[in-house]
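ugh ok fine here u go
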Amino acid sequence: MLDFAIFWDWLAFAVRWLHVITGIAWIGSSFYFVALDLGLRQRPGLPEGAFGEEWQVHGGGFYHIQKYLVAPAEMPEHLTWFKWESYATWMSGFAMLAIVYYAGANLFLIDPDVLDVSVPVAILISLACLAGGWIVYDLLCRWLIGKADTGLMILLYVILVFMAWGLTHLFTGRAAFLHLGAITATIMSANVFMVIIPNQKIVVADLIAGRKPDPKYGKIAKQRSLHNNYLTLPVLFLMLSNHYPLAFGTEFNWVIASLVFLMGVLIRHYFNTRHARKGNPTWTWLVTGILFIAIIWLSTVPKVLTGEPKTAASAAAQVYVASAHFPAVRDTVLGRCSMCHAAEPVYEGIYHAPKGVVLDSEAAIAEHAREIYLQAGRSHAMPPANVTHITDAERALIVAWFEETGQ
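structure:
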């Protein structure tokens, strides 16, 4: 019979794979169309209503592309929509959030030293953050559309900084970074679903009815598309950050997240400027490098404990402690794993516990039973290259310990 933990881990892998594939498709098309839009050239003799054109070469052929700022004079016979990449990326990302952070809330979402709440309450807070981020962003955009685009961007950044700080006071550092990325990704996908595509459908309906489309719909859609373009790189960093405790597990993690947004904006500004043929702002790379150095320094600041360290396993984890196999498993983990997975690792070159997982006490070992089972029992992923020489018998003991609990 297939072990549930193994099935769940493979399910997480499958959904993660889908998320990466759809994300690549969405980001690729988004970057392409922004670059295309910025590179359009105007010339005499363009068709009526055409804003600009671009010649491109790829795959052994030439492409001649023209853009109509509002719409062509009549509805074309064939029209390709770019929307499913965005929808599939968000849905698969939300599925990942549920599989990893909601199903594993006690381990990945809730930190009692930060905010001691039940699993249902933590999930409700998570959902409220996703919805609230979009509502605030959308209201601000509707309020300031066409009035103060630069001021809007500054205001949105201030709100993002506040969100970064606030999320670190609600969840674990890992979950705070993930949620900041998820909120931003929700804004991006909702821009497509709630604004860009509906506006384009209004224009299409006007064309079919023989009416002249209102240019405001294209203007609004372009603003949201530009926001998505600048938000993409920070979202990628935040989604990958769970592999790097130096980012999410240090004292000033919210400052690091805030600086990452600035780095992403600077990098996109460089490429957008080049695509628009408006110069070569290499200064953006210098500033980005300085910000990255600042992030490295911030990650070395010692973490100030805000609560008492955990001394006992949770009620659920007590089942693992009560097992007759636990003393032997505990000794194995302390002997084979804790030199890296400790508050102060002693293994050369390791300065923070990998993925923030600390295994230097009975309570911690019990709390991470499932991960130990998958990483060091059922697979040989840990220790890396088996540098601490864990034996097959010790791995078999870990498997027997976890599976006898039936959890």
